[in-house]
Design goal:
The chain is of the alpha+beta class. The protein contains 4 helices and 7 strands.
Length: 143
């Protein structure tokens, strides 16, 4: 995503443009709060019943290069719209719309209303999928 006063014509379809200045430190804290095994029911789109909403997050971090911010998340699996809702919640924390402990509160309550909005999908990129006997990164590098 781009945190800049003006949108980029080149990246308008591949990056979310945020007009506000973001507090990356607050977003880093929010990203760290989801590390480990938690019940992510609050970060799942409604209407998608699943047997178990517990997931393990191994990596959750923001990287900044100039006006560009990238969120990287790795986990044991993801619920429907989970990554978009995580990103939307962290963006609201970074803009000051939500308190810094909103991530923890949403994890504890399990209520969708306690999490932030669902971030738009443009800019979301699936980089790699790993199963016990398959790593898409190996497949891609061999092409």
């Amino acid at each position: 995503m781009l945190s800049a006063p003006h949108a980029s014509a080149i990246e308008r379809n591949t990056s979310l443009h945020i007009h506000y200045r973001l507090d990356k430190g607050m977003m880093d804290e929010a990203a760290a709060a989801v590390l480990g095994t938690h019940d992510f029911a609050a970060f799942m789109a409604s209407g998608r019943p699943v047997d178990d909403t517990r997931r393990t997050i191994y990596c959750s971090e923001w990287h900044q290069s100039g006006e560009r911010l990238d969120y990287t998340v790795e986990g044991s699996g993801f619920l429907y719209n989970m990554v978009r809702i995580l990103a939307g919640t962290m963006l609201d924390i970074g803009m000051g719309r939500l308190e810094p402990d909103a991530m923890r509160k949403a994890l504890e309550s399990g209520q969708r209303g306690d999490a932030g909005p669902t971030a738009p999908a443009h800019g979301l990129t699936l980089v790699r999928v790993v199963y016990d006997d398959f790593d898409s990164g190996n497949y891609i590098s061999q092409q």
